[in-house]
Structure formats: structure tokens, C-alpha cells
């Protein structure tokens, strides 16, 4: 069985590391992305996710520069996304130093792009990111363009379709829980765990060690964490130790160099 993964998630806006609540509220500047990545590397996290949340031609150049500097300084794989629309975009990010590329809005607009990218670069290089929001107590719907546009897609069915298109993994991000630190969407995790065959990373809501435990025990392959690592004293080392004490199969090395 694959080991559970701990993955800090970076949101970049104009090259700055930022954090919001529910995608749009309460912007906080969270430091230098390269310096912060080096700290996490020393903590021995498993991977890093870097998303350009307001992509443009200018921001793409900044992101490529940032991940180029990260790849020179850190020793862990990272996934990069934001505004990825073509095979050329995927190639540019991989050449800049990314190990995997995340596709979101373009996958919805042109699903065959996922298959084409997986065929060209390998399934293991392609992550599909799905942002969703609850509408009522049980129904949820997909949103694209950074949570700005609602589309008539059920996130569970869309995740299963992306698996059929040969993506390597799925990143499920709850807009409602993003930045709230009130816990992951366990209902969504439980539902997808029973049906999805590729690894699932969950994002949105982690504010305590128990929240991460709950998500991983519910079946998530990995937890993406932003606010808790940036704004509390819960470090990746502390979380990894706590997970191991609960019997969850996580890496025990204190450094990702090993």
C-alpha cells in the first residue's frame, strides 16, 4: 500500500505566497515562496503543490522563475498548476523543474486534453485539480477559473471521468472549507474512496492534527495543507510523528533528502 503523504500547498498571486478563506476572502501575505519551500524541505515533507491563482503571461514567467529556483534548492517533488491550457504549457512547467502539472479549468472545457497530456508526458505527470462547492447539505458542484465560474458537473462523477482520461491523481479542493481550518470534507472523501482508483489528495479545512488524521483514515491518499502550516505552530514534523503514533503508514524520515 502507498504511504500517506503530507503536502504543503502554496498559492501564488503575482509571485507572492498568499492565503485566502473560501478562495476569495481575507487575503493574507504568507512569505517568500522559495524561502518557505526550503523550510518545508528541511522538515521532510513529501511533496509540494504550487498553484498560480491568477494566471497570466506575466505571472507564468514569474512562476517558472520561482519553481526554477525551488528546484535548485529543494529535494522533493512538486506539482505546479494554474492556467495550464496546452501541451506547451505542461512542457514548459516540467522543463522549469516541476515533477507534475495540475490541470483544472481546461480539463473541464476540453476533457480530451487530459488524455492527450497523459499520453504525451505520462500519467504520473498529470494531476487534475477539482474545485467544488456545496449547494445544499449533500449536493456539490464543480467550479472553474479559480472558483469564479460554476459548471454543471458533479465533482464525484467528474473525478471518475478524469480517472478514465488517465490522469495520475486527483486534487479535490473544497471551496467552502478553504482556509477555515474547520476540517476536511469527510463526506466527499468517503464517497470518492469507495469509487476512485487513482490517488486522491484532499485540500481545504485542515486546522488541527486530528483533521489530517480524519482525512487520511477516511481514505485520502494525501492531505494538502496551507493555513495550518503557515499560521499555527503545527509543523510537518509534528504532524508526521502524530500520524505515525496513530498507526498511519507515513514516511518516518526527518528529511526528504533520504
SSE layout and pairings?
Elements: E1 5-13, E2 16-21, E3 25-29, H1 33-43, E4 48-52, H2 57-73, E5 78-81, H3 87-96, E6 100-103, H4 105-109, H5 112-121, E7 126-134, E8 140-144, E9 149-150, H6 155-164, E10 169-174, H7 186-193, E11 200-203, H8 209-218, E12 222-225, H9 227-231, H10 236-245
GO molecular function: imidazoleglycerol-phosphate synthase activity; isomerase activity; oxo-acid-lyase activity
Pathway: Amino-acid biosynthesis; L-histidine biosynthesis; L-histidine from 5-phospho-alpha-D-ribose 1-diphosphate: step 5/9
Organism: Nitrobacter winogradskyi (strain ATCC 25391 / DSM 10237 / CIP 104748 / NCIMB 11846 / Nb-255)
Question: Briefly, what is this?
Answer:
It catalyses: 5-[(5-phospho-1-deoxy-D-ribulos-1-ylimino)methylamino]-1-(5-phospho-beta-D-ribosyl)imidazole-4-carboxamide + L-glutamine = D-erythro-1-(imidazol-4-yl)glycerol 3-phosphate + 5-amino-1-(5-phospho-beta-D-ribosyl)imidazole-4-carboxamide + L-glutamate + H(+). Its EC number is 4.3.2.10. Helices cover 37% and strands 24% of the residues.
What would your notes on this structure say?
37% of the residues lie in helices and 24% in strands. It is α/β, with parallel strands linked by helices and 258 residues long. The C terminus is likely disordered. It has a single domain, classed as Aldolase class I (TIM Barrel, Alpha-Beta Barrel). It is globular and about 45 Å long. The chain is built from 10 helices and 12 strands. The two termini are 20 Å apart.
